[in-house]
Queue: 2 jobs
Job 1
Amino acid sequence: MVSDAPALQQTSEPADNAAAPSRAARYARPLLGILLPLTLALGWELVVWLGWSNGRLVPPPSRVFATIAELARSGELVRHIAATLWRVSLGFAFGVVAGTLLGAISGYWSLARRLLDPTVQALRAIPSLAWVPLFILWLGIFETSKVALIAVGVFFPVYLGVMGAILIVDRKIVEVGRTFRLSGFAMIRRILLPAVLPAYVVSLRVGLGLGWMFVVAAELIGASEGLGYLLLDGQQLGKPAQILAAIVIFAILGKLTDWLIELAAAPFLRWQDAFGPAKGA
């Protein structure tokens, strides 16, 4: 019994030592991601503080964050963020549903692809602002036209991602499913869905990014609140700090929502044995 105790102690110490760097690396990764923007912000703050620039057109970070704090104290910031988040959420939901359904139909059914895809590809080339006067004419200047414009931006990458992922599924895997006489539903659930899911998650992230881009154009349609309105108001009143504050908030919200998609998709992609950083590294 006495001789076993040191051996147990020796085996437990390396495990503890290995776990400590793993935890440290996990906490260090998010900090590493903000290193570049933090360095640029501090560098520009230093440039203005030294008097090398007056910071009038490009205000230093201290002035931008002071503007954000002022908007937060007045309650305007919460109102604008809530309005923009609501529009992006609705537009994203509608765009994802339409893009997923039409992309799956076009990818799985060749006749539908020949009928739908040329039209979709032609519509995809239309600039976002070109839709604005048409949606105002059809849907008015209220929320419906704004949500519809965001949904258009989300639709195209989701549609292309789903259709393209289905088309590049390995034929040998499908033949294995047919060999085991899987039904159509079982083929989709056990073969196509796992094969398509990684590309689908990427298309959702791209669609969300375009949704955030399209919301600016959407909020130029007679909006009285929202981050896009805050941008336009800053431009009209000559407030560059307010413009940069809205851009910074756009960047933070975009990154947070993208991270939420990654977090939600992670449990469904644990089976992947793909190139990338090892788990826990």
Note: Confidence is low (pLDDT under 50) at residues 5-13.
Job 2
Amino acid sequence: MPLAFLNRLRDRMPYSPPSPLPGGAGALDLRVDDPVGLPMAGVAVSVRNLGGQEVTRGRTDPNGRLTVTLRPGTYRLVVTSDGFRPERSEVEVVAGERTAPRPIALEPAPALPLPAAGQWRIDPDHSAIRFTARHIGLAEIHGRFNRFEGGLWIGERMEDSRVEVAIEAASIDTGVRMRDEHLRSAEFLDVTRFPYLQFAGEWFVHKGGSRWTVQGVLQLHGVSRTVQLDTRYLGIGTGIAGETRTACQAVTELHREDFTLDWRKMLAKGIAAIGATIRVELDIQAIRPE
């Protein structure tokens, strides 16, 4: 009954007539559904020519639809969404016509095996902690921390796990020696007083597919703030020495003023270094100790 009601509601939505097509072009009207036939928003669609080159790409709207205008010809579609099997198909676009293939139904992808319960050590040689910031609103600055250590304690339920990471503040590296020295100074990280950035996360929430949220507390510049990591779990593998590894990617955004790093004060002094918002990206591999 609920599914029938939703389908009737969708059928009653106001109809907007399609816009006219440019001369000599055709249109491709796609719809993507989930396994129970409901529209899926935000699904990535890549349209490629027969040589494999991407012609255009887009994402479905809240009604699970995407319309693209193309030159006449045969195209290959690659439809992807996290937690679902990719779907591939071919379509023919005809000049002056709107091609509407059957709705593409995505199926759930097999769940990746989770790491075994117990302690895992972060491997700094196969991990990276990078950041991106604006240079006073102009070009981007890219940097990384070269020295860090930490571990994962995986619970019997993944939701009961925790992670701890300690980052050596003085290991900051943006590729410019003068700028790095300035970032280590008392006006920024103040590495003499605060030699480490520390993160401790004890809240793991499954968001679907391979997506998790890891929430914890970051200590930076003597201040503690709650931080949320948008995390993609990559699964289990075996290293060259036969060791068991697990991996993930995570991203978060930090605001300097949350950690008493006053960028306006810096600008008032004529110091042009790093903007107020910093994007942090992590590529982590962890090893199961013998």
Note: Residues 2-11 form the longest helix (10 residues).
